[in-house]
Structure formats: structure tokens, C-alpha cells
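Below is a complete specimen:
___
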Amino acid sequence: MNEKRDDRQEAYGPFVRFAVISLLLLMATAGFKSYRDLAEARAHETELHGKIEATRQRVEQLEDQVERIEGDSLTLERLAREELGWVRDGDLVIVLPEDTPSPSASHNSVP
């Protein structure tokens, strides 16, 4: 009876070893992929933190600029004139024509 059990163990032995080795390789591959994904996620997180900090600094700069503009009417007027093209009553406005293409030489010749 023991001989039959030993024969079965010997018959299934290579299959069990193959299954165990395959399972270990599968787990190692999954672990490596998970580690790689985690490293990529951490790098992306670091990049996003940098962008958030740069955006915060830009917001602070813009808030400072708004405070300076609101407190200085001359600067506000200058920006309105430069950026928006605003003029004061009594200002002389000169409008220059846009560049137009010159007529071609064939139109100017006499037949």
C-alpha cells in the first residue's frame, strides 16, 4: 500500500514542482510590476507637487500685482491705455491704415 502512495507521489512530483515554480515566478513578476507602477506613480506625484507649487507662486505674484494696480491709479490708467486701447476725453487718436498689398505690375502696364 505504501508503494502505491510512493508511486503516486513520484508521478505527481514533477507536476507539483513545476506548479510551485510557476506560481513563484508569477508572483515575482506581479511584484516587480507593482513596484514599477508604484515608482512611476511616486514620480508623477512629485511632478504634480512641483506644478502645484509653481502655480501657487504664480497666484501669489498675480495677487501682488492686483494689489499694486488697485492701489495706484496711474498704473491702472497706464495699463488700461496700453492693454485695452482706452483713451481719455480730449486725447488725440491717430489711426494708421493697415498695410495693403501693392498692386501687381501687370495691372499698371498699358496694353
About this structure: The radius of gyration is 39 Å.
